[in-house]
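Chain A, query sequence.
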Amino acid sequence: MDTPIINRVAQSGIITIDPVKFSPDQNSYAVFDIKEYLFQGMLLKEKDYRAALKEKDWSNYVSKPTAITCSNDAIIPQWAPMLAASYLIAFTNEIKQCSKNELIEHLMLQKINNLNLADYTDKRLVVKGCGDKVPQSTYVAIMQKLQPVALSIMYGEPCSTVPLYKKKK
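Chain A, predicted structure.
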């Protein structure tokens, strides 16, 4: 018997949301790391830092959300990120003092916040799990954004889900 295989998941009308797709492209943001300007990896010399910032090629930051951070475990004076920001302001309109991962999380949350709700209204949704590179806050933001319009929201894979929300009739 040649009975065709039927993909019931595809026929169910369930929309799968993969949180990884909200991750920004590596070239769409920038990180300014003060670590590069530390003397012996521990100390920031004001005169040297000022001179280095004047000579820096800032073209890699044009129109990119930028994190100002220090990835080294050094005590940085409060004015140091401010001085970097004073240069960055001419090249980008979004500057945050945070780690690279915090900037990525911020950008992911922005994308979720900008979702077109009409695409998800009265739909059955599955939020794909097991995203290693996905902050937990992303899952919570998806829930907060889509629950008011979705018919139902589940977590996992379409073939094996955990129900999270179902609209009451």
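The chain has two domains: 8-24+115-166, 26-103. Residues 63 and 92 are 5 Å apart (CA to CA).
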